[in-house]
Specification:
Structural class: mainly alpha
Distance between the termini: 33 Å
Radius of gyration: 24 Å
Number of strands: 5
């Protein structure tokens, strides 16, 4: 349900596995007709970010983990040999979509003077001719098919020596409907199915939805797409003991400054207020935090 901690959980997964995977956050899209271009753009934006505690972006760190860059002496030779790199990559991945352009852009990512232009190309920006010539590509990614195939390229390029790519779809409550009136959420499940059907094993897709939203669109999502989901997880309401622990964690920094130190870890609050408001013994985390905020505000005023 709303406020149960979906986005918080995604954040915890990202922090815990920060050094073991590349994370891409896919938020709501403006037009469900262009879902693949949105997914590609958001993925590249996330991968270009430098994770906390790291000195390089996720994308650069990921590229350096590819087999081609860990061969002894190979990376050094590639720095001045774009053609050698592109030819070698095309030979290894002959079915790559627009392989020459794609691998030229990948090569340009490793050049600090060209990396932003190359990233813009991967994002699907409409580059001018001068920028296209700088990174040695013929045309921009200008269609849904091109965006989908570019995502596929990223998946096929990855292998067991690289970190997996985690695509996190979140805050999907207000995505626009498709032109035929069906929910835009259906388009996102299509993305997951394509990734599965193409055998892109280095992707993990996490879809976060409010229960009520899912119930309203479930029948619009084809059974074949629902069957492509490996695991379903429901975040339940939490017991009141956990809610008081949540209060205590938020109050701990203030208690550390207080003289004398409060006897109760949730002072000036009391568990009795939680029990009064939630006779069933369970509460949504955000509701528990809102109650604490309301009580403390009333204390200050009265």
């Amino acid at each position: 349900d709303s406020g149960s901690g979906k986005s918080h959980l995604l954040g915890r997964i990202k922090r815990r596995l920060n050094d073991r995977a590349c994370f891409a956050y896919i938020g709501p899209w403006p037009d469900s007709q262009f879902i693949w271009r949105h997914v590609l753009r958001q993925t590249v934006d996330s991968l270009m970010a430098v994770p906390e505690g790291q000195s390089e972006s996720q994308l650069i760190r990921w590229l350096k983990g590819l087999e081609f860059f860990i061969r002894e002496g190979f990376a050094k030779r590639l720095l001045g040999e774009r053609r050698v790199f592109v030819r070698d990559m095309q030979a290894s991945f002959p079915t790559a979509y627009q392989g020459r352009d794609f691998f030229s852009a990948i090569y340009a990512l490793l050049d600090p003077e060209l990396s932003m232009i190359a990233a813009d190309w991967l994002r699907g920006e409409d580059l001018d001719d001068e920028d296209l010539q700088l990174i040695k590509v013929k045309r921009s990614i200008d269609s849904e098919n091109a965006a989908q195939k570019t995502m596929s390229n990223l998946g096929w390029l990855a292998n067991s020596t690289t970190q997996p790519m985690v695509l996190c779809f979140d805050n999907l409550d207000n995505v626009p409907d498709m032109p035929n009136g069906e929910s835009g959420v259906k388009a996102m499940f299509n993305v997951n199915t394509v990734i599965r059907n193409e055998g892109l094993k280095n992707f993990l897709v996490i879809i976060s939805l409010i229960t009520s939203k899912w119930k309203s669109v479930e029948q619009q999502v084809e059974k074949a797409n629902r069957d492509r989901v490996d695991q379903w997880l429901t975040l339940p309401r939490i017991p009141l003991d956990q809610a008081t622990s949540l209060w205590a964690s938020r109050l701990r920094p203030l208690h550390a400054e207080a003289v004398p130190t409060p006897v109760s870890p949730i002072a000036p609050l009391a568990k009795a207020w939680l029990e009064h408001k939630n006779p069933g013994g369970r509460v949504i985390p955000r509701v528990a935090l809102m109650l604490a905020e309301q009580l403390i505000r009333e204390f200050k005023q009265t």
